[in-house]
Amino acid sequence: MGSTDSKLNFRKAVIQLTTKTQPVEATDDAFWDQFWADTTTTVQDVFALVPAAEIRAVREESPSNLATLCYKAVEKLVQGAESGCPTEREKQVILNCTCILSRILPYIFEDQDWRGFFWSTVPGAGRTDELDDDEGARPLAESLLLAIADLLFCPDFTVHSHRRGPDSVENMQSIDSCEYIWEAGVGFAQSPPLNYIHDLNRTELLRLLLTCFSEAMYLPSSTDNTVLNPWVTFFCSTENRHALPLFTSLLNVVCAYDPVGYGIPYNHLLFSDYREQLVEQAVQILIVTLEHDGGVPHRPPSPSSLEEHESAGPENLFVNYLSRIHREEDFDFVLKGLARLLTNPLTQTYLPNSTKKIQFHQELLVLFWKLCDFNKKFLFFVLKSSDVLDILVPILFYLNDARADQSRVGLMHIGVFILLLLSGERNFGVRLNKPYSVHVPMDIPVFTGTHADLLIVVFHKIITTGHQRLQPLFDCLLTIVVNVSPYLKSLSMVAANKLLHLLEAFSTSWFLFSVAQNHHLVFFLLEAFNNIIQYQFDGNCNLVYAIIRKRNVFHQLANLPSDPAAIQKALQRKRKSPDVISRTGSQETVSMEGSHPAVPAEPGTLKTSLVAIPGIEKLTEKSQVSEDGTMVSVPKTGRSQTAQSDQHAVVGTSDTESNSGRDNEVSGRSTALSWKCKLPLQTIMRLLQVLVPQVEKICIDKGLTDESEILKFLQHGTLVGLLPVPHPILIRKYQANAGTAMWFRTYMWGVVYLRNVDPPIWYDTDVRLFEIQKM
Q1: Which range, 1-10, 440-449, 548-557, 567-576, is most confident?
Q2: What is the pLDDT of residues 688-740, one digit of tens each?
Q3: What is the average per-residue pLDDT within 675-690?
């Protein structure tokens, strides 16, 4: 009964607010208290009882009342942060004000004229003395952010009280929040007892904080990284005395979370997991605050770069703390936590739906990316042992699972970007040689082999059976294969055949000539084959055998037509068979047991648009591996074999079809001559010249038709002294740039928008960073 009355009274207050044409005085507490004093409303109630149309109506018709409502709600939070909310009633007031502000803020941000409101001081709005500091009144936004930070470490509200006496009220001003970190982990050893009320209260405050940061969604996308989000800038600055304990609390809560709980089947159906809601908000706050780096690398600044560094605005303490984590046990805690959560959706049990499956893997991938990007010691730690494979396998699972679903194109990109970043390090290639025995159910052919085989088989599946919009990623996928190829000791027959099937598909003359950059794909594959032959010939008889069997593909490449008439003829053949890659000839075998085929998005699924990704030559820089294993950067020349970088700075976008063939046909013809003579075929041609006669002779002499005998011969064969001098190993390392920074911002906020549906914080507001599209 009480709850219904309370909702009714709250709704009456909202109606009064929307129908009043005269400004209501800020001092009229009897009116304003109706919104928070005697009601117990959940955030879902507030969203239902305060319709969007009414918020917009008040904004347009009685702006001073909307301003006063915001100001009064912030004032209540500031008072609560000072008093420490000793009574239940005060705690409820704080929660009500938090929900109301989460509801209203997006409507403040969507209107350009209102956006500065929170950054102004509110003159004569019945300010109480305690809000007027000596330094003059703070902007409303700063008061709000500091109050949220204080309330996140409020004993008996969001953290356990340490004092237990008759007068056990802790002074909020003198509290050392580093003693109240929410969870054990990085830099903190005690794990406080779980308290679901505290988790719920933290979740509401973090939701409001995320809403404050979301002003970024209402500004159009731009590659100008100097425009900083004032909310994040202030919150992550030294003005926030809780920055360190809060960063640590968020990171530890995420990395310590175990969704499977106590291992009781169906436990997630029996009780609500309040910790999961907290973890979701925590990981979203982390990625949003860490995105806020403006693409300027936060390495320790050298004296020469210090002035520049200062002018970019105050340092982001969250980025600073992340980059300074260095203890092995901290790295281990973070990596194991992320791997456990990323692997969770893959876990198969004999009882259907018996384990809880988390939904926030995209946010975890962005967090992992940030860790590797800002903390090179963490990246090296990840690659130091085969623990990196616990990250690789879930990423390959997500890539394979999402390949047919256009609403998950962003997930495909982040997964590929992470693998591109990792593949720039030698250790990643070495780790891939570990045998793959986990066998997560994926709809890929069954094979026996290593993690390298798994990677190649999944990439082949993406390229041959993914949707059209993944074409801009083909360059990245093959760059990863090239980067790891010098270290692959022994490919399985399945993986070797997949690589040759890709070469066969990409080297048909109509595909090569239809789009100006298509020949890059052939160059990448040939480079990978050359690396394996030159550096790992001994263990790779499967690949050598596959190359011998498909030798005609290499002969055709060597004899590609370059006269306009023949090219025109090839392009006409293409028109009759518009499929990008022939699905035949890839020897599809039975998929793994227990796997589900990749399916397109359900009709009506919402997705957010993404900006274009830069071309591979902008995404990466070349490094040469010297004899002692160190990498030396290769200066960019205008005439690299995958040239024309300026002409094609941006490869098709994720949301429009990749560059249409028609526009590029002309340039395809004119450049055919320039790249054809650079095809790196010498090593393979020499291999065929030496081995084909030998294999043919054995087959005739011994009457062999059995593959295994030929493989045995190849296994013991040698090409020492017969091949050209080994070329230096070239690695294309990921490099940050304005284009990818913008891509990450759009992708991350798109994920946050779509994942916050209960309540739907930003739904139906005028978001401008991306478009919301229905599948």
Answers
A1: 548-557
A2: 999 999 999 888 888 767 788 899 989 888 888 888 888 899 999 999 888 89
A3: 93
Backbone angles phi, psi at 650, to 5 degrees: -115, 125
Backbone angles phi, psi at 197, to 5 degrees: -65, -45
Q: Which two tokens stand for residue 540?
A: 């790779």
SS3 content of the chain, % helix, strand, coil (to 5): 60, 5, 40
The mean pLDDT value of the chain amounts to 86
- The band of 589, judged by pLDDT with boundaries at 50, 70 and 90, is low
Q: Which pLDDT band holds residue 512 (cuts at 50, 70, 90)?
A: confident
Name the token pair of 97: 């004000």
**Would you say the C-alpha torsion 748, 754, 758, 764 has a positive or negative sign?**
positive
Q: What are phi and psi of 158, to 5 degrees?
A: -125, -10
Two tokens, residue 730: 């070239």
504 or 7: which leads in pLDDT: 504
Phi-psi region of 311 (alpha: psi -120 to 50; beta: other; left: phi over 0): alpha
Q: Give, for 266, the enclosing helix (H) or strand (E).
A: none
Q: Please answer whether residues 629 and 426 qualify as being in contact, where contact means their C-beta atoms are separated by less than 8 angstroms.
A: yes
d(CA 426, CA 631): 10
Q: Which residues pair with 445 in a beta bridge?
A: 591
> Which pLDDT band holds residue 482 (cuts at 50, 70, 90)?
very high
What does each C-alpha distance from 14 to 54, 306, 577, 759 come to in angstroms? 9, 51, 62, 18
Burial of 625 (0-12, 13-18, 19+ CB in 10 A): middle
Pairing of strands 772-774, 606-608: antiparallel
**What angle do helix axes 493-506 and 519-536 make, rounded to 10 degrees?**
150
Q: How far is CA 130 from CA 69, 76, 284, in A?
A: 19, 12, 33
The phi and psi torsions of 422 (rounded to 5 degrees) equal -65, -40
Given the structure tokens 């190829």, which residue do they identify?
A: 485
CA atoms within 13 A on the CB side of 724: 13
DSSP-assigned letters across all residues of 437-505: ------SSB---SBHHHHHHHHHHHHHHHS-GGGGGGHHHHHHHHHHHGGG-----HHHHHHHHHHHHH
The CA-based angle 232-335-320, given to 5 degrees, is 30
Identify the pLDDT of residue 630: 84
Is the bond preceding residue 759 a cis peptide, omega within 30 degrees?
yes
Residue type at 629 in one-letter notation: G
Contacts of 678 (CB under 8 A, 6+ apart): 523, 641
CB contact at 8 A, 387 and 339:
yes
Compute the half-sphere exposure of residue 160: CA atoms within 13 Å on the CB side of its CA.
13
Cβ atoms 747, 414 nearer than 8 A: yes
User: What span, in angstroms and rounded, lies between the C-alpha atoms of 238 and 313?
Assistant: 12
Q: How far is CA 319 from CA 48, 208, 300, 455, 569, in A?
A: 37, 21, 11, 31, 56
* Range 368-383 average pLDDT: 96
Only one residue has tokens 């099937």, namely 501
